[in-house]
Design a protein that fits this description.
- The complex is a heterodimer of chains A (754) and B (156).
- Chain A is of the alpha+beta class.
- Chain A has 3 domains: 9-211, Aldehyde Oxidoreductase, domain 4; 225-295 and 349-438, Aldehyde oxidase/xanthine dehydrogenase, molybdopterin binding domain (Aldehyde Oxidoreductase, domain 4), CATH 3.30.365.10; 536-753, Aldehyde oxidase/xanthine dehydrogenase, molybdopterin binding domain (Aldehyde Oxidoreductase, domain 4), CATH 3.30.365.
- In chain A, the strands form 7 sheets. Chain A has a 7-stranded mixed sheet with strand order 9-10-7-17-14-15-16, with helices on both faces. A 5-stranded mixed sheet of chain A has the order 12-20-19-18-13, with helices on both faces.
- The longest helix of chain A has 28 residues, at 124-151.
- The model of chain A is unreliable at 1-40 (pLDDT under 50).
- Chain B is α+β, with helices and mostly antiparallel strands and 156 residues long.
- A 5-stranded mixed sheet of chain B has the order 2-1-5-3-4, with helices on one face.
- Chain B is globular, with a radius of gyration of 15 Å.
- Chain B starts with a strand and ends with a helix.
- The mean pLDDT of chain B is 97.
- The chains are: A alpha+beta (754), B alpha+beta (156).
- At the A-B interface, helix 6, helix 8 and helix 17 of A face helix 1, helix 2, helix 3, helix 4 and helix 5 of B.
């Protein structure tokens, strides 16, 4: 076998030139791993020296044993707070039989980890986890073969305890002594068979996350916390609205402010660099007060979005056709049609986006909280017409993003600003206003559903029409996917991508229905949009599961029984059955003013199963409702870390409750009006419902992404519960109490009293 | 004009030359290299920047640093005593109460201040104390659980 070339010429020179940088960076993961040192007998973890990723078919690309007594896992997926680090460590520790406390992980660094695209679509455990499992199993087999050779026996006769191989005759050698400092340069052949779930010791355990220990002590963790030698601080002032362009500005008053090192004006791109962070904040305020803009109004009013969708979207994509379906629906004993709407919603990250950039001659390094270090590197390469090999993007955790927040944009902007400050680390952080106004929102969507049902409550036909703007404008190698690249003196033109799958995700019901049809109308709306947790599945599931509830009500059925009757997949039925059992569904008591709502979906119609019960209580005097409790059941296949899965699901439930009940981006012709937490409130602790999550473990099925499974069903369950309590069907999100027909409730109560 | 500002932070006296109007947060993060308190909004709306001032949880992203002279400031970094985590910190670990973790500073600081004043808070009082702090990941139910656990530990 040919020796893998770890250092190609260009890479070697890159490493050499940015050597001090590598040291600067490596301090970060090493320091963050040291907390493990106290619990183990192995020598303290000294990290693994960065070496470039060469080929994802090599064991060494995923699994490294070069730190004495420790395993280092490499993953191209980013830790976003979803607990991916511990889950991936558990997988590697399992296959290699090393205690997880001796395992470490490096995530998302174009200088050393594999290219795994974006950390998105709940795909990290399915994708990265699978690759790491295979690489770890292969590494174990390779090590067993080496030991077998040494002791003239067979690999099958050997066993491993915490990284030490033992023979049946009592010989022992650790992985590290066996390797004598050599890397595992073997290919992943597929020869090694991963362990069977019945042998698992670490997978399936609720191991704690290491990073929580660091965070509660206030240790440096986020990209916001990076402190580099000689680092300076930048702020940017974005145009007041999307299409506004700078008419004029006198920069002299800004340039003379205390601490200001540089003021940058490039077209409509305005930025300041200062010694102290607060000096940059003050200078930004000055830029804001001095800039004169050519205004370009947003033409479409907020309350006419659905009309605009219908009148401007043109011909639809025929995603699934069922000829003659309109007839079936029209002639069905019960037929029903309704329209639903989802507004623009925010990622609304708690910490505004931040990045650090450094140019050294023509080499660029960016510390970024992006979900995709390689795609951002490719996009930076386009922005600066630079060879990708000259750019290193190092992933550092950011504030929870749930899709594409401002992290990619701020990375591009930090690099643009740092270009003017060669040799200096430039830290750019957005202000709250930047994040609220400029992040790419989860798009508004419209839905038109019609169905026909027989008199026994069997659905005969279901027709879905969806209107949606793009759910993905992530960095794709074109500079203009960084929003500020569109504002430069020589602007990059932005082209929306052709990916429409996100728009109709979960748009076709999973229920057993003879005729199903879906048309997608691609809409080009007034606001900037991109990926938000679940993409179109959130809106589609809200519409579908609300509409199903309308059909169930018309047929006079029980919402769990109805679903069980119309689903075939036993795993789908199992989550609903478990929900019924855990909530005592059949014997539930319904006090006056109380409402129960059920919803179910299988995310992407192909991954995790999730069923949920929402309980609301109305207050007729105050004309409000209170979301009291949400109980969910999830099946995401083999569970790697039950507490991690629970935490993610609880979070998804509460976040979806917030989106569904109160969130809507406000705008008018002058621009975005939701600029802070007062003008875009989200759910706070006082209003947080009680949350209960139950897990179904399927050890013999592959693990599936779980982070997005709850989003859609929770919205419909709340709407269905409001209907159950009030008789009001709210079809446009958010589910605000003022949309409930309170008069009708008083009338019906009055009638029932007569 | 910069002025010498004298602050008591985590039991130590620090003198920093800064614009007296500069909000405390920038001094804590910039001059004192403390990563606990975080910038979230700059508007006193989200609680990311909370510290304990004397015995109350207070935001720091707007209020001038000079107004904190003659107070005792405790940040997240200053909660552990003699190498032992504060019971609230330990409870957050025990309940794994975090997702992205950006709000943890505000949540923990608010909880510590609450329990100092009221060692046995009700569910409603806990919710009220944490309500000032935004959490986008939806970890609220775990935070409430963590504060209850910390309260039990403290009263044990």
């Amino acid at each position: 076998m040919a020796e893998p070339q770890f250092l190609q010429t260009s890479r070697r020179s890159f490493l050499k030139t940015t050597g001090h940088l590598m040291i600067g960076f490596s301090l970060y993961p090493i320091a963050s791993c040291e907390t493990k040192g106290s619990q183990m007998k192995a020598p303290p973890y000294v990290g693994t020296p960065p070496r470039p990723h060469v080929d994802s078919k090599l064991i060494d690309s995923w699994i490294r044993l070069d730190a004495e007594g420790h395993l280092t896992v490499l993953s191209g997926k980013q830790e976003l707070g979803q607990g991916i680090k511990i889950a991936l460590i558990q997988i590697a520790a399992e296959e290699l039989d090393i205690e997880p406390s001796r395992c470490h992980i490096i995530n998302s660094d174009t200088g050393q980890t594999p290219n795994e695209g974006f950390t998105a679509g709940s795909n990290s455990v399915e994708g990265s986890g699978k690759a790491i499992r295979n690489a770890a199993a292969e590494a174990r087999l390779h090590l067993l073969k080496l030991a077998a050779q040494r002791w003239e026996t067979t690999p099958e006769s050997l066993s491993v305890t915490n990284g030490t191989i033992k023979s049946q005759t009592g010989q022992e050698i650790s992985y590290w002594n066996l390797l004598e400092g050599k890397f595992i340069e073997e290919k992943i052949t597929g020869e090694a068979i991963p362990k069977s779930p019945s042998q698992y010791a670490y997978v399936g355990k609720a191991l704690q996350r290491d990073d929580i220990q660091q965070m509660v002590k206030g240790e440096s963790h986020f990209v916001h916390d990076l402190r580099m030698p000689g680092m300076v601080h930048a702020r940017i002032f974005h145009p007041p609205s999307y299409q506004d362009r700078l008419a004029s500005i006198d920069l002299s008053a800004v340039e003379s402010m205390p601490g200001v090192l540089k003021v940058i004006k490039n077209g409509s791109f305005l930025a300041v660099v200062a010694e102290r962070e607060y000096q940059a904040v003050k200078a930004r305020e000055m830029l804001k007060s001095l800039a004169i803009w050519n205004k370009a109004p947003i033409e479409i009013p907020l309350d006419q979005l659905f009309d605009s969708m219908k009148s401007t979207s043109g011909k639809p994509e025929e995603v699934k056709l069922s000829p003659g379906i309109a007839d079936v629906i029209a002639k069905a004993p019960i037929s029903h049609q309704a329209e639903y709407f989802k507004p623009y919603t925010m990622h609304a990250s708690m910490g505004p986006s931040c990045a650090v950039a450094l140019w050294e001659e023509d080499l660029l390094t960016v510390w970024t909280a992006t979900q995709g270090v390689y795609p951002v590197r490719g996009t930076l390469a386009d922005l600066f017409s630079l060879d990708e090999e000259k750019i290193r993007c190092i992933g550092v955790p950011g504030s929870g993003c749930y899709g594409q927040n401002g992290s990619d944009d701020v990375s591009g902007e930090a690099a643009l600003i740092a270009k003017e400050m060669p040799g200096t680390h430039v830290r750019l952080q957005w202000m709250r206003e930047d994040e609220h106004k400029w992040e790419p929102y989860g798009t508004a969507m419209g839905f038109q559903l019609s169905a026909g049902m027989d008199s026994d409550g069997k659905i005969l036909a279901w027709d879905t029409n969806v209107w949606s703007d793009s759910h993905s404008t992530r960095p794709n190698g074109q500079a203009a996917s960084f929003v500020s690249a569109r504002h430069l003196d020589l602007p990059f033109a932005f082209q929306k991508g052709g990916f429409s799958g996100g728009s109709y995700r979960n748009g076709i019901p999973e229920y057993t229905i003879a005729a199903k049809q879906l048309h997608l109308y691609n809409y080009s709306g007034p606001l900037r949009t991109s990926s938000l947790r679940g993409l179109g599945a959130y809106g589609n599931t809200f519409a579908l599961e609300s509409f199903l509830d309308e059909l169930i009500h018309k047929s006079g059925s029980d919402p769990i029984d109805f679903r069980l009757r119309n689903l075939e997949d036993p795993r789908a039925k199992a989550v609903l059955e478990k929900l019924a059992e855990k909530t005592d569904w059949k014997s539930r008591q319904k006090p006056a003013g109380y409402g129960f709502g059920i919803a179910y979906s299988r995310y992407k119609n192909s991954t995790s199963y999730f069923a949920v019960l929402a309980e609301v209580e109305i207050n007729r005097e105050a004309k409000t409702y209170h979301l009291k409790k949400l109980t969910g059941v999830i099946d995401s296949g083999l569970i790697i870390n039950p507490d991690g899965l629970k935490n993610q699901t609880e979070g998804g439930i509460i976040q979806s409750a917030s989106w569904s009940m109160i969130e809507e981006v406000q705008f008018d012709q002058d621009g975005i009006k939701s600029t802070d937490w007062t003008s875009y409130p989200i759910l706070r602790t006082i209003d947080t419902p009680e949350v209960e999550v139950h897990l179904i473990d399927r050890p013999n099925t592959p693990p599936m992404g779980a982070g997005e499974a709850a989003m859609g069903p929770v919205s419909a369950a709340i709407a269905n519960a409001i209907f159950d309590a009030t008789g009001s069907r709210i079809r446009d999100l958010p589910l605000k109490a003022e949309k409930i027909d309170w008069e009708a409730i008083s009338v019906s109560l009055h009638r029932s009293m007569l | 004009m910069p002025k010498n500002i004298q602050l008591r932070v985590n039991g130590e006296t620090k003198t920093i030359a800064a614009d007296p109007n500069e909000p405390l947060l920038y001094i804590l993060r910039g001059d004192l290299a403390l990563s606990g308190p975080k910038y979230g909004c700059g508007l006193h709306q989200c609680g990311a920047c909370m510290v304990i001032v004397d015995s109350k949880a207070e935001p720091t992203c707007l209020r001038a640093c000079s107004s904190f002279e003659n107070t005792e400031i405790t940040t997240l970094e200053g909660l552990a005593k003699n190498g032992n985590l504060h019971p609230v910190q330990q409870a957050f670990i025990d309940t794994q109460a975090a997702q992205c973790g950006y709000c943890l500073n505000g949540m923990i600081i608010s909880a510590v201040a609450l329990l100092e004043e009221n060692p046995k808070p009700s569910d409603g009082q806990i919710r009220e104390a944490l309500d000032l702090v935004i959490c986008r990941c939806g970890t609220h139910s775990r935070f409430i659980k963590a504060v209850k656990l910390a309260s039990e530990t403290l009263n044990h």
